[in-house]
Specification:
The complex is a heterotrimer.
Chain A: H1 3-18, E1 27-32, H2 36-50, E2 53-58, H3 61-70, E3 79-84, H4 85-93, E4 97-98, E5 120-132, H5 133-139, E6 159-162, H6 168-181, H7 183-194, E7 197-201, H8 208-213, E8 218-222, H9 223-231, E9 236-239, E10 245-255, H10 261-271, H11 274-282, E11 288-289, E12 308-309, H12 313-331
Parallel strand pairs in A: 1-2, 1-3, 6-7, 10-12
Antiparallel strand pairs in A: 3-10, 4-10, 5-8, 5-9, 5-10, 5-11
Helix pairs in contact in A: 3-4, 4-12, 6-7, 6-12, 7-12
Chain B: E1 5-16, E2 19-31, E3 36-40, H1 47-55, E4 62-67, E5 70-71, E6 82-85, H2 97-107, H3 112-125, H4 141-153, E7 159-163, H5 171-188, E8 191-196, H6 199-205, E9 208-213, E10 216-221, H7 223-228, H8 233-238, E11 243-253, E12 256-261, E13 264-270, E14 281-286, E15 291-294, E16 299-308, E17 312-318, E18 324-330, E19 343-348, E20 354-357
Parallel strand pairs in B: 3-8, 3-9, 6-7, 7-8, 13-20
Antiparallel strand pairs in B: 1-2, 1-4, 4-5, 9-10, 11-12, 11-14, 12-13, 14-20, 15-19, 16-17, 16-19, 17-18
Helix pairs in contact in B: 2-3, 2-4, 3-4
Chain C: H1 15-18, H2 22-49, E1 50-51, E2 54-55, H3 58-65, H4 67-100, H5 105-120, H6 125-134, H7 139-144, H8 154-179, H9 182-190, H10 195-206, H11 208-224, H12 227-232, H13 240-249, H14 254-277, H15 302-331, E3 332-334, E4 338-341, H16 344-351, H17 354-384, H18 390-397, H19 399-402, H20 405-415, H21 427-438, H22 440-452, H23 456-463, H24 468-497, H25 513-522, H26 526-557
Antiparallel strand pairs in C: 1-2, 3-4
The chains are: A alpha/beta, B alpha+beta, C mainly alpha.
Chain lengths: ~325, ~375, ~575
């Protein structure tokens, strides 16, 4: 009789410990840095092709990396989908990625792949300027054609772009500027640009919606986020600066100690295949495929008019933290 | 099958803030089978604590408790086979009267049929046969009290413990319930400890009374003994009302002392079991009902107040020594009455008074 | 009845022998509390104060050396103070209007109902709506012709947090104001004071303990708030919770994050201790005591009442306006561009968001009864059992609640991410985070209601032969059911709407609606975020309606006077 209470309290306790259920084996667990609406299509297609079910969560690149580093001893997921290559480079240093050369790797140029096969590029995304059309009409201005156009006082309190501490888009912005102007000049420029900033957003795409709705006038984004907003029907213009932009490589990779290693490898093989490249083109997922054997149909993704700057992924990874620190201490102070 | 209850050298120390408080100090007593024993004392005297230790709600710091010869000092409440009636009744507000009374029976796993019968009998015993389906908040105070009583009686406890059960009732009902409880206790022949601070209740209901003061037992005895032979000034003052007159023993003869007080000499009975010698200071307990103003001989004084109460007159008489004496004078038509300010003589019957050694202070 | 008011016996010869269920119950409770409250906190401190096994202040010093983090610390305190003041002011006006100004009961009801909206909403709701209204190019700004109003930063965060948290102050203060005996105010009037003087000299001073309590509650809420500054504070107004989050997620800096959350812990603990040991002892109002004939409240003067009513109506209208923006946002195709009505966004919520919905509901459904049980057991042990560790147990059981969610979340990922207790990615870690954080309300209300139930009720049960367990389940539990349900409602709401701690704990297998809303917002899916919010609010509303109904039913069943002394 008096043991009843003891029993109940024990159930409370044991129940707590036991609520975690074991995972099934014909599944694949993933973090995606690629936007949810694209990732869900990608994984759906993968499931349709292989029968492997995918559980996934979307994080910004910083969050995803922080998580896999934190979970190193007990990986919660098997792969990461999407996200800039420098994020992967940072992860390699932490030892969280497993080397694997996927079946379709040879169809992808070497500069879009990790030298140690820790990650494989599946798409290329340059930075672009995204500007609100109504804003331009009101002010009688042309879309920005140069980085310096953004320093125009007309943009005062009107720019939204990503915060370097959380967003790969933001660090890409710094890489572009350093390539164009050199490091010190790049930070001097950003200090001036800061005068026009309305808000630095947590995620790379975070400022695109405010630009779309007219809350903000303009911003710098990866093309994938900019085109997405445009496709939704908002009055926005996409333009490229004449000085050029660097581009990110959207990668994917397997985590060391993945619990569903076979499925993870199957995914890598699938993601590096021509079929996948064709799939993102067909679905209007706005990456430029890394495979050269697929034709891009969307004119907005035609890079012939844009000046693309070549940047070394290893260089990006090596300088990331220093640039972020400098940004915190020089630009936003 | 009434049982005997024994407490020996029970002490209870509480920690209050940082001080240790001795709530109960070396209490020993034996309640005989079927006896109604009342704990009487002012609030804070420790009487409730003793009762709660008998019940098992508190554990004595030292000492032992025996029920029917069995040591129950460390037996949990629920295994002691006692019935406890609370001052606030402590009926379960979420259960009907029937369920309240059936509660203990269900614990003891009686059959449903048995429970039905016993609850019926119990409620009949307290005169509440028709209230089964009602809830405690639909009952009057007196009815709640009866349910509380029925709830313990159906279990046929070895000892019945009652903690000021009548203090929340109005005066008339209280007097009625006294006799009810006494009747039921005698009818069931159950040993009963009864806590009260009402001396009238104690005197009318008890076989014996234990008077407590500051955690200690002042006296245990029958109502008559307590009243006529108080063992301390505290008891004398607490039971009934008492005038305490200081005096000096002139001589001792048998049990009767010759005491000089207020300039006069009276023969006064010395309290039992105390030795007196000539020259000793004593306190003489004079009950107000045995002292009255007179036109004849007596202690001189002045009436300071006179109050007519219907059946009697109450006088407060100021003595030259500064002491005030309280006197109850039965009223009869045609009898002489006094007014405030009038000088009087006070006459009293020394045989109904008792002398105590003058060593304690009376707490006012 | 018990005149000597026993507290604790210095010598306990055989308490345990007499209450055999106590030892295992205490052991189990202490083990759970140690595991889910003390251990994570200890690990957090360990990470903060050690580097490679050596004790050091270095981690903390490097955070304090950083101007941006120092700024965040100052901002956090400043914002919390501002929100505490404005929220308490607003809450007092609301409480005053509802308890003191005669008006039709439906109006009173709807005003109280509107104030509960922010309490059951996911954290970003008011932020989204406010941004659309007062942010750059916001509807209201355009309407009023205001330009160049910098909404991001202090002003936006302050406004949003005030609107989100003032209902807490309102509830606290309404209870206090309603409990002030109107006879006291009558006495003031009868002594010749004007209504306004009575308000100033009687009503206001009597409500000061409530005001102090509301100030502290709001200060703590704002200090711990993570969601609002994440969306609205921007780079110019860093605060500690978001800074700690960014440190961990953006810079992969667990030590820095732990140090920042330690900085956050200091003011939070100060407030908690002040509340416990200072405000808690200063109440003039005793609830539940019998008052004489209750007189009606008298007018306090037209000017004061008019002002209070105007403020109330304005705020009520504004809240309704904000929520209609959310509703509208969920129903149009593309906000501000294509305003055709559509249910497309809800279809998205119920397809792409289905997992999050079922996960969240599952977690809430598991956590709520467990939390209720925990509240009853801890509440009973703390209030009824005399044992040396119960004070400490009460303190510990409320600790996670007093700490900002960010601190708890970071402590949990540090503690449960490696052996011996590996819980990341499980539902357990989410359920545990919720239970040990949000059962606090239940524990408090159980303690409060046991405080009003005379122990003689339970003693009666024991003296009738019932053991500890039977007494607990047949007598104690039924009597505290209303307060347990109240606590469960609070727990459920927070299981559905909280984000600050659990954003660190979600996993691919267990996701939450609130993190989905955050995701939608970072992914520009504004309409979907609105639709998610609406669905979440409706779910919470239905569930709380059921729990409230149950509470009322249970309370009516045991409304007897039998337990009062």
């Amino acid at each position: 009789m008096s043991k009843l209470k003891y029993l109940l309290v024990s159930i409370l306790f044991v129940g707590l410990l036991a609520t975690g259920a074991a995972a099934a084996s014909d599944t694949l667990n993933a973090y995606t840095i690629m936007p949810e609406k694209y990732a869900s299509q990608v994984f759906e297609a993968f499931t349709a092709d292989t029968g492997i079910k995918v559980n996934f969560m979307r994080f910004s690149s910083g969050e995803a990396l922080a998580r896999v580093v934190a979970e190193k001893n007990n990986p919660q997921v098997d792969i990461i989908l999407g996200g800039p290559a420098d994020t992967y480079e940072a992860g390699i240093k932490e030892g969280v990625f497993e080397a694997y050369k996927p079946a379709g790797a040879d169809g992808i140029p070497e500069k879009f792949r990790s030298s140690g096969n820790y990650w494989t590029g599946i798409g290329v995304i340059p930075l672009v300027f995204l500007t609100n059309e109504n804003f331009l009409k009101e002010k009688g201005m042309e879309p920005p054609q140069s980085w310096n156009d953004l320093l125009d006082p007309a943009y005062k309190n009107g720019l939204q772009m990503a915060d370097t501490r959380t967003s790969g888009t933001a660090t890409e912005r710094i890489y572009s500027l350093v390539k164009i102007m050199g490091e010190d000049e790049a930070f001097a420029y950003q200090k001036k640009l800061h005068e026009n900033i309305q808000m630095y957003t947590k995620s790379g795409a975070g400022g695109a919606m405010p630009v779309a709705t007219g809350q903000a006038a303009s911003g710098i984004f990866y093309i994938v986020d900019a085109l997405d907003i445009q496709q939704q029907g908002y009055p926005v213009v996409v333009s490229y600066p004449k000085e050029g932009v660097s581009y990110g490589i959207e990668g994917t990779g397997i985590l060391t100690g993945a619990k569903n290693m076979e499925n993870a490898k199957k995914f890598m093989d699938w993601a590096s295949s021509k079929k996948f490249a064709q799939f993102i083109v067909d679905r209007k997922i706005n990456y430029i495929p890394t495979r050269t054997d697929v034709e891009v149909t969307n004119p907005a993704l035609d890079m012939s008019k844009a000046k693309l700057l070549e940047t070394d992924v290893a260089w990006k990874g090596a300088n990331r933290k220093a640039y972020v620190d400098r940004w915190i201490n020089e630009v936003i102070k | 099958m009434a049982v005997q209850l024994e407490l020996s050298h029970i002490t209870k120390i509480f920690k209050k803030d940082k001080d240790l408080v001795k709530a109960v100090d070396d209490v020993s007593l034996t309640a005989l089978p079927g006896e109604m024993l009342t704990f009487l004392g002012p609030s804070g005297c420790g009487k409730t604590t003793v009762l709660r230790m008998v019940a098992g709600f508190e554990i004595p710091t030292s000492g032992t408790i025996l029920i029917d010869g069995q040591d129950v000092t460390n037996v949990p409440v629920n295994r002691r086979d006692i019935g406890f009636v609370f001052q606030n009744y402590a009926l379960f507000p979420h259960m009907s009267v029937f369920e309240n009374v059936a509660y203990g029976l269900r614990v003891k796993r009686f059959s449903e049929e048995e429970i039905r019968r016993k609850v019926g009998e119990g409620l009949d015993l307290v005169g509440l046969g028709k209230a089964e389906k009602r809830f405690p908040n639909q009952l009057s105070g007196g009815e709640q009290q009866r349910v509380a009583l029925a709830r313990v009686l159906v279990l046929e406890p070895r000892v019945l413990l009652m903690d000021e059960p009548l203090s929340n009732l109005d005066a008339k009902l209280r007097i009625h319930m006294r006799t009810e409880i006494r009747r039921i206790q005698q009818q069931l022949n159950v040993t009963c400890l009864y806590v009260t601070h009402d001396q009238g209740e104690a005197l009318t209901m008890s076989d014996r009374i234990m008077v407590m003061h500051r955690g200690r037992v002042e006296q245990i005895g029958t109502p008559f003994e307590i009243y006529s032979d108080p063992r301390s000034l505290f008891v004398a003052d607490f039971i009934g009302q008492a005038n305490i007159l200081p005096g000096k023993v002139l001589s001792v003869e048998g049990g009767v002392l010759s005491v000089s007080m207020e300039g006069r000499v009276y023969p006064v009975r010395g309290v039992k079991d105390e030795a007196f010698s000539p020259g000793a200071a004593v306190s003489v307990v004079v009950r107000p009902e045995s002292i009255a103003p007179t036109e004849g001989e007596g202690i001189a004084g002045t009436i300071s107040t006179a109050t007519f109460l219907g059946g009697r007159l109450e006088y407060e008489v100021l003595l030259p020594s500064g002491q005030t004496i309280l006197s109850f004078d039965p009223y009869e038509p045609g009898k002489k009455t006094w007014k405030e300010g009038e000088p009087v003589r006070l006459n009293f019957d020394p045989s109904s008074s008792v002398a105590l050694p003058s060593k304690q202070e009376v707490r006012s | 009845m018990n005149s000597s008011q026993p507290t604790e016996s210095p010598l306990r010869p055989s308490l345990l022998k007499r209450d055999p269920a106590l030892i295992p119950a205490l052991a189990v409770l202490w083990i759970s509390l140690a595991l889910f409250v003390l251990y994570p906190l200890g690990r957090l401190l360990l990470v903060t104060f050690t580097t490679e096994g050596q004790f050091t202040f270095g981690n903390l010093a490097s955070v304090l050396d950083n101007w941006y983090d120092r700024q965040a610390f100052r901002n956090s305190l400043f914002l919390a103070a501002a929100v505490a003041l404005s929220g308490t002011f607003l809450g007092y006006i609301y409480a005053f209007v509802v308890t003191r100004i005669p008006m039709p009961s439906w109006l009173k009801w709807s005003m109280s109902a509107v104030t509960t909206l922010p309490l059951i909403s996911p954290p970003f709701t008011s932020s989204i709506a406010l941004t659309l209204s007062l942010g750059p190019n916001g509807i209201l700004l355009k309407l009023l012709g205001i330009e160049n109003f910098n909404f991001y930063g202090f002003w936006g965060t302050w406004m949003s947090e005030t609107l989100t948290f003032f209902p807490v102050a309102f509830l606290t203060l309404a209870a206090i104001l309603a409990a002030i005996d109107p006879n006291l105010e009558d006495a003031g009037l009868s002594l010749g004071a004007s209504p306004r003087r009575v308000f100033r000299t009687v009503t206001l001073p009597l409500s000061i303990p409530g005001i102090a309590n509301a100030l502290l509650l709001l200060f703590a809420s704002s200090l711990a708030d993570f969601a609002t500054p994440l969306v609205l504070a921007g780079h110019s107004f860093p605060v500690l919770p978001t800074q700690a989050y960014l440190q961990i997620t953006g810079l992969y800096d667990l030590k820095g994050g732990a140090s920042l959350s330690f900085l956050l812990l200091l003011p939070a603990m100060t407030v908690y201790l002040m509340q416990r040991f200072w405000v808690g002892k200063k109440s003039y109002v005793t609830v539940g005591g019998k008052t004489g004939s209750r007189s009606s409240f008298k007018s306090t003067g037209l000017l004061l009442e008019g002002f209070a009513l105007a403020v109330c109506f304005f705020i009520t209208a504004f809240i309704l306006y904000l929520y209609s923006i959310i509703l509208l946002g969920a129903l149009v195709k593309v906000w501000g561009v294509d305003n055709t009505l559509t249910l497309e966004n809800f279809r998205y919520v119920f397809t792409h968001g289905r997992k999050a919905i079922t996960d969240t509901l599952t977690i809430a459904a598991v956590a709520t009864p467990l939390g209720g049980l925990l509240a009853v057991v801890i509440g009973t042990v703390v209030q009824r059992k005399k044992f040396f560790s119960v004070k400490a147990m009460e303190f510990t059981s409320l600790l996670n609640y007093a700490l900002p969610g960010t601190v708890v979340g970071i402590a949990y990922i540090i503690a449960f991410n490696e052996k011996p207790i590996l819980l990341t990615g499980t539902m357990t870690i989410l359920v545990a985070a919720y239970i040990f954080r949000y059962s606090a309300a239940g524990i408090r209300s159980v303690i409060a209601s046991l405080h009003q139930i005379d122990p003689s009720i339970e003693e009666a049960s024991a003296s009738l032969g019932a053991g500890t367990a039977r007494t607990f389940f047949r007598v104690t539990v039924p009597l505290v059911v209303p307060s347990v349900l109240l606590g469960m409602r609070y727990l459920f709401i927070h299981c559905m709407t909280a984000i600050s701690a659990t954003i660190f704990l979600v996993s691919v297998r267990w996701s939450l609606l609130t993190t989905r809303i955050l995701e939608c917002m970072t992914e520009l899916q504004f309409a979907q975020a609105c639709a998610f919010s609406i669905v979440l609010i409706l779910l919470v509303f239905c569930a709380t309606a059921v729990l409230t109904g149950l509470t009322r039913y249970a309370a009516r069943r045991i409304s007897g006077e039998g337990g009062r002394s």
